[in-house]
Batch of 2 targets.
Target 1
Amino acid sequence: MSITVTEAPIGQPAPKRELFNAGLAMAALKQSVVMLRPDIQWRNPVMFVVEIGAGLTLGSIVRAALGLSGTGPRLGYLIALDVWLWLTVLFANFATAFAEERGRAQAASMRRTRVATPASRLRADGSVEATTSVGLTPGDRVVVNAGELIPGDGEIIEGAASVDESAITGESAAVIRAAGGDRSGVTGGTRLLSDRVVVQISAGFGQSFLDRMIALVEGAVRQRTPNEIALTLVLTAFSLIFLIVVVPLWPMAYNAEQYMAGYLGLSGALPSLGTDVPTLIALLVCLIPTTIGALLAAIGIAGMDRALRANIIAKSGKAVETAGDVDTVLFDKTGTITLGSRRASDFLPVGGVSQQELRIAAALASSADQTPEGQSIVTAVLADVPSQAIEAPKGAQFVPFTAQTRMSGIDLPDGRRVRKGAPDAIADYLRAQGAQVPAALTPLIERVAAAGSTPLVVADNLRALGIVVLEDTLKPNISARIAQLRQMGLRTIMITGDNRLTAATIARHAGVDDFLAEATPETKLTFLRKEQAEGKLIAMMGDGTNDAPALAQADIGLAMNSGTQAAKEAGNMVDLDSDPTKLIEVVTIGKQLLMTRGALTTFSIANDVAKYFAIVPALFAGTLPWLKVMDIMHLHSPTSAILSAVIFNALIIPLLIPVALKGVRYRPLGADVLLRRNLLVWGVGGVIVPFIGIKLIDMVMVTMHLVT
Amino acid sequence: MWTLPILLLAVTILLSIPLSRYFAWIMEGRYRAPRWLAWFERHLDTGEQDWKQYTVSMLVFSVVLFTFGYVVLCLQPIAPLNPLHRGILAPSAIFNTVISFLTNTNLQHYSGDQHLSNFSQIFFILPNMFLSASIGFCALSAIIRLFRGQATVGNYFVDMWRVVAYIYLPAAMISGIIFMHEGMPMTYRTEQTITTLETGAMGTDAQGHANPQNIIVGPVAAVIPIKMLGTNGGGFYGMNSAHPLENPTALSNFVTTFDMMIFPFTLVLMYGRMLRRKRHAAVIYSVMLTLMVVLIGWTVIFDTLRPNPAFTGNPAAHSYTLPANGSAAPAQRISVPAVAALPVDQRLGNLEGKELRFGTSAGAVFAAITTDVTCGAVNAEHDSLNPIASLSPLTGMWLNCVFGGKGVGMINLLLFLIVGVFLAGQMVGRSPEYLGRKVGAREMKLAMIALLVHPVLILGPSGLFAATAWGTKAESNPGPHGFSQIVYQFSSASANNGSAFDGLGVTYGFNNNPSPAPEAVPLDIATGLVMLFSRYLPIIAPIAMAAFLGRKKIAPVSLGTMRDDTVTFGLLLLGTIVIIGALLFLPVAALGPLAEHFGPIPFGG
């Protein structure tokens, strides 16, 4: 039986979803109040500081309301201040809760595929017992018939069938899954459209990759990634630094009060906002990086969510983050760079061998070969040779292809051993038996290879008969995709079992930076280790069991969902679409995650400059009124200046939630341009925007007569 | 006006380039010392050290130096070379002075020509100036080696030997000869009695004869070269480089200023050479240079080109209403009376507290440079700078990385750099890297600790002293100017600068002084502790950071890597320094120099 493989379209866009949704927002709102509990809030140190400040201000309000605080500022100001401090915490919690709710909604839609389904378990004696997917354990074998749902993740060990995977990929075209190849993996919840297969279950109910990813997206098991931990630490340190700036302001302002009271000959103190604790708390809250502190968790969750929407299951948040740092991408030639359906296009005999003899031998060697290449040889030969001429006689022994021998063939009962395989593999095979390789063969191989085709040498016992020319075509758009990777600063390396000449030609056409020809799983792994020893981070995709060691070794191992269980276990990501060029999306998502964090942190710190210009003159308006010249925004009054800064600081959080969730747009422009652009937008912009924002808020408050 | 700063910068830049080659050659140990010098080196070499051993050696050495200094100062009354019979300093003053010279700060809560004997100058001041100055140099060398990925960082004692014997000593010899030629004293005698030109300038005795003047002399030309080259700054005379015998001529003033700049300039280039990242170092150098040009320009413009506001007057009376902020207290009004301008020719700018021998801008230029490179020598009264001009020396000490002290300035810059790289570096879509290595949580923790120390030690004590009698009784002026004096004192201590704003009563003097400055003891102890912590924490933490960073693998450079040798990177670095610096110190700047500048007479001016 011939099996063709349907490729998922490259770079299939994720289904569009609206960013905000009333239901989600309501759920998130409730959750953000729950998160005010100190034991939960504690996990976000920056916002915890704000919560403490809001609590302390509440204390001041109570004191002022009871008339205990004497000459402090008016109650209305304190209440307004405190309300906005609490709102700051709530906005931050909302950002996190909303990202989590979105993830949860996404997960819920995926979970619909994870319901208990009927299953037919195969007993050891061959009989079938009815059970449900819940009762399955890894190792169980189940029979699935056409029209039935596959009860769990596993591997087809018998049969071949077309499967509808739209439930998990959203792609309606059926895909072929078959036993004994690299496309044997099936996912629970997908539907068998034809035939009957036996599936060996590899994950118990609720234990599959998808279940793990759902948990990750829901935030239940979300662990902070290394970069997130470092950033949290830096943000906490900044909070501490600003605490160090604000606390000494009290005695310093006290010094100014004493001085001016002395000058005015006042007997009592001259209270100013500089020694008003709630005002100093407001200054502290404005200075500490609340914007990024509030959005940090949301950015991380949104990154996972984006990965999931691209149909990529990441096994950890760290994997997504690492993807942004990848230096080198390894691509398999077949199926990634070329269409992977190599066809026999020509037969070139050498040394007086007839066309007929070469064709029959090639077809014989391929008669048990189920690969598209093998099948194409048989088909091509059948066009002008009767089928009985190439039928394998009874008692013939098939020699399957292995990645080590890189040849396959047949041992006939009459002692003939017919082989076809890679030129160097056949040459070694012949030489090992003391035979000669015809001199005419080498130039022929080179000519074929130089044209970008794959030469296969056919040998009958000790005689090399000639060459089968396999032609392959580049995937449409692949050069553009690879050029895009280069612009992102990534090196692309093509891995192929082909000889160097073929590889070089295809590499040149596809535009990859380098290639690894005549690759075996061992050379692949060695190559990976060598690159990693040079400090490079490597991403690769794979689907076969052969790929498993390399997938495990790579920093980003993207396994195809259609691949074997071993491959999926070894990698740290699984692509549900089984699209090898998905690595580009993976890297983009990783970069976007890091960029969003960097941009919002820079923005948050840059914002502080304007807040100083609003708050510092206000603090000392009561003692050093000429500092008013620093108030370049010309704010209405000291209290309105402080309130405007606090309100701006709070409002910027919900305003930036869309950026946190969608991520800062990544363009493959190279680091220099990106840095320049983002420094301008988020750094310089971060300095300028709050000047405008604070002024606007002040003006609005004045127009609405909210401040005196 | 501008000739002096331009000439100084040009000469320093020009000489720092070949010198950096020499420094790298010495610190990489590629020289072959003459036999008699190699003998010392062999005996100092205790073998290759890892970063911990190196740091411990540095600390142990510091403890020894501290003890030695303490003993020498305590022995002053009974030691030789003390014909003027100078007694023992007050205990708090000894504590402060020993730490001050150990930490390369040279904050002087005493007056060199009045309180120290030549014995103390030679056996306490001189060795401390050579040795403490080598600590920062060695620390930077260790960090460079760690960044190169070396597991061991050489030997601390050998490094110190190299710095002192092959770098400081030859340079000090050359400078010393120039200084002696210009008229700086170099003698074991302690005083010289002269008849003053203006008869009776020193008063007359009972018989009506004019009193002669006793001028303190000593081995001045031995101390001053290393005082400047090692960015120590502790003067032989209390008047420091404003004293005619400590800075006799315009040429000596030029060499003095050049001496304090040259090593900090050179070390940045040495960093690039030793790491094989010359372009990167050039970017850092340019950023520092930009800041320095701005700070020098600021001081010159606001001090030399602007009149002294104290003389300018206040044409009309006006008043300020203090906002009540909605509180129940009645609103207050501050009335400012009209003040007539004084008839002083102000075309030469603010000449108060300047040494006019050196020209009108020399004081301003010196003030900016001495604080940028954390030298701390002064040739003018910083207390008398125009208020807004005094923002420049304060800023130099707050940033502490505008070339900064030898080694430590570069180390401080690395802290800003790491923070900038960490925050903005992610904006290229990679986790942050420096020198190709990923900057992780552990490195950031150490960098932030080191970065935190400086503001804590300036703002905390400044607040404490501003609100208590410790500060308010010590300051010579109340209000913003007095506040500036307090902040300046702690900024100088924490930056290990050592220059004084003056005006703050900090001198206790001899132990038997019947009327010491009222708050000298708390100021001695507080600044002593500040100097100690701000010296060692910001050296040890970055060494540890470099050790952890150096162990990581180097990622190859690609299109996606942020380059650290571009103009963009320079702007990023500049932005980080300016923004973080402003965020830390803007409120203090507002309360001190800005309040004084914007305030009308009698609050400002």
Note: Chain A touches chain B through 103 residues (CB under 8 Å).
Target 2
Amino acid sequence: MIYRCLQFFALLIASCLCIVSCQILTPSADQGISPLGQGDRPVTLKLGGWGSSPAEQRLFQKVLTTFEATHPHIRVKLETVADQYMDVLKTRLIGDAAPDVFFLDSFEAPFLMSNQVLEPLDAYLTPDFDLADFETTLLAPFQQDGILYGLPKDCSSLALFYNKQAFAEAGIAQPPATWDELLADAQRLTRDRDQNGKMDQYGLGILPDLARLVYLMRAFGGVAIDPQGKAAFASAAALKGLNLIVQPYQDGIAVRPPDVGANSGTEMFGQGKAAMVIEGNWAIPFLQETFPDLAFATAEVPRIQDQPGTMVYTVGYVMNRQSSHKSEAWELIRYLTGKKGMALWTGGGSALPSRQSVAQALHYDRDPLRSPLVAGIKYATPWQLGQYPAAIMNSFNNQFISAILAEQPLQQALQRAQNSANQQIQAAEQ
Amino acid sequence: MKFSIYPLSYRWILYILLAVYAIVTLIPFLWALSSSFKPLSEIIAGDFWPHHFTLDNYRQIFLEQPLFLRWLFNSIFIAVCVTVLNLLFNSMAGYALARLQFRGKQFWFLLILAVLAVPAQVTLIPTFLILKSFGWLNSYQGMIIPGMINATFIFMMRQFFINFPRSLEEAAALDGLNTLQIFWYIVLPLAKPAIAAQAVFIFMGSWNNFLLPVVILFEPEMFTLPLGLNTFKGQYISYWNYIMAASMMFTLPVLCIYVFFNRYFIQSVTFTGGKG
Amino acid sequence: MSPAILGLGLFTIAPILFAIFLSFQKVQLLGGIEYEFVSFRNFARLATDDRLWIALKNTAEYVAIVVPAQTILALILAATLNAGIKGQNIWRILFFLPTITSSTVLTLIFMWIYNADGLFNQALAWIGLPTYNWLSDPQVALKGIMIMNIWSTAPFFMVIYLAALQDIPRSLYEAAEIDGANGWQQFRYITLPQLRPVTFFVVAMGIIGTFQLFDQSYIFSGGSGGPNNATLTVVLLIYQYVFRDLQLGYAAAIAFLLALIIIIVTLIQRRIFDQDPT
């Protein structure tokens, strides 16, 4: 028995040594978390967000450095989540280990707003913050029962991107203004240059993803969710709207990225495999950098039923209700969503400002590429699906693809998706 | 003398098949390697070889990321600690399960199986809460201690030890060696190939581990390499050029470890004819 | 052993016990953790969940094809590499490459290769086989993942077999040679029986790994399990319940159903392969 004991103690000591050495090596994490009253020692705020391209990361760091220079009593520690942002964030919120301020996509906002983990911001707002400057379509996603929980850091709407050279070849002078014109143009733009029976250029590139489609349903009075937050897209109106892309796809004048060996709509547009795509602001710097020879222009999404429509995606800054530095956290949010901070950030061109005054100051409302996007924000449908967005979106995407591939009628696919989503929601609410 | 199960005349067919299979395994890897030297537009265009060879992707990762060396250190430190602890614990536990006649052996075996059968996704939040209660979030011990023993490899070592001839151990016991001595001086040296395989797998597992660190490591200084390199992913746009360069940087060290341990997998072991 | 058992207990068993506890609760996790005992309601819900049955069917199909295929491939590769061919080290390094590369990176690489114009279709067309849209055709989406997984996991088990082949006493082969056994007979009557415990391990690990398929279907389908539920797996479903809606109780119930299936299948195959079922 003695050797067993010896063995045990030897390993115990080894483990202890290991733990101790770990603690020595670990940088003390809590340097900045000092009680508020501790005089001149700066407060360290944790800011949670996701990663981006190296250029964007540099720009964001510059914005934060500028903030620290003007607010010497606050240090900002950026906690970048490498992947699965919302999963990680939810886990950290459960464990009371979430950052003081963090990014929140409008899509995910209702779940967190109704779970009482976000600090209401109304009490912090002052008149000079000029809340009216924000587009209402961008504030609404962060409001619940009249309470404001987040401020939009930036946004992007969708616009029609078209290949100028392809338009010239097909003899089309103007970008389409209505969906009918869009389909007629798409017909003319679909080409088999080498006559091998395989199209080299399709008229329209589409993404069969609910995130890109809700405005089509709305054009005919359809909705994605009803006021109770249940899926409600299996309606005749929604069907009509969705047919605007299903039909052209089945007619062979529209195409999805995987059909032509691309990973995204922007890629297939850049490669010239689709002459028109409906994409967001993110496509502009990407296309300019990656396809410098591509001549492209943008226009507002063609009107449907004589109504303008598009989607808008926005990300907000929200404050953790558990934060122990709420007034400093507000100072950070106020700066980042204020006129100066936002101009610095969105001046980089990878996102559109959520304040009208900043869009004007940066001349984005007159910029030939960005003005259709800026104009769209006003009438756009914000991307949001209530408290159980994943159930609705997954069910829809899952079935819609098989409908678009003509494996089942669209009507049946929508009904199946709706039933599945609502079953999941009902089970979750029980 | 290596034994052979193939007559010499079939050998050339064998080499052709091996070569074909090698091409199949190599092409995706080469494709990623070549992509890491291309600008983004060329990756999207999809040709195999780069037209404009560029080191820019690597330069961006190395030079623009001041923390790269720190991430490398974190990954290596954690992986080495985890590997050493695992080799020790898994081998002992596996040996115990294969040889020692203690009560509840069957229970332990079933327990290991049950542990393996529950997917990590469902235990992640509980693990997070436990680490949080220890104050081990954002720390090395939070990464090392939960991973210091691995049911998979306890199981693997058990399966290896079962096959060992008991005669050697019995002889050693007659010579007066105790169980620990037998394990250390007789069993472990014989198990070198299995231990080498285990070392590679555990190192690899720790190196590639993403699920736990992405949740418990907050600060950039504490990131492991996969976390740090993953921050290049954009919200809407995937920068494949950086992703490919990063994944090459990331795979290389494991390849080196494998090449180092590789020779132990086939090695003329000392107990040839030990049973005879 | 004790610290090891302690570690295993604290960080492996405790979360599982906690999950067992959760499977009988309705849990509110955000904004203060609250539990409500619901007895077997989470388990009763299993029977009514259509998606679970689709996921189980997909997963079972996946296991039934991938486990035998990767085990046999691994055995063939190991036996071949062990047979004294030239340049063994190089072959072993080449063959092991897919396993070294992390599964996320591999999946990203394969998304390119499986494209409509990708390498895989080019190769198929060159041989004269039909091409598919591997990523978004429900008929083949799961098969694409199967091919990729067999290819990337077989080398892992190959290494285990290689190590196991070293442990077979050479004297057995020498004795067989004296008795006039040829190469195939030696393989059949010495190598295979001697590899039984390790085969049990390899098959068990294969079963566990394939039943827990997640990464590939998550990345290929963007987390939805589509197209038309073709890549919905049990663990993807569990993941959706855990993180999307934080329904940890129900997710734990699914996890235990899965664990039960894995344990039963493993115990059955243990009767076949394990020499020492003490």
Note: The CA atoms of residues 154 and 223 of chain B lie 29 Å apart.
